[in-house]
Automatic annotation (TrEMBL):
Provenance organism: Sinorhizobium numidicum
InterPro entries with a match to the protein in the record: NifT, NifT/FixU_barrel-like_dom_sf
Identification of the protein by name: Nitrogen fixation protein NifT
A Pfam family the protein falls into: NifT
Domain of life: Bacteria
Keywords (A to Z) from UniProt: Plasmid
Length: 76
């Protein structure tokens, strides 16, 4: 899914245009942001592509929504 990552003051946020959803990023797996997952305030975990640390924001990327283990077990 397309996601726009931007800086809002000292924080980061993610905007998902298809869902018209903008949420603050509350957890980052990698200090450099790219190539790991981020967690949005609504609980979504998004896997971001591996980009250079100095990538300018805002930027729109193709991210993958990660399903948590509990949801996987329920659908199995």
């Amino acid at each position: 899914m397309k996601v726009t990552i931007r800086r809002t003051g000292n924080d980061l946020s993610a905007y998902v245009p298809k869902k018209d959803l903008e949420e603050p990023i509350v957890e980052i797996e990698n200090e450099g942001l790219w190539g790991g997952f981020v967690v949005l305030r609504n609980g979504w975990r998004l896997l971001l592509p591996d980009l250079p640390k100095d990538t300018q924001l805002p930027v729109t990327v193709e991210a993958k929504k990660m399903v948590n283990d509990a949801a996987r077990k329920e659908t199995s």
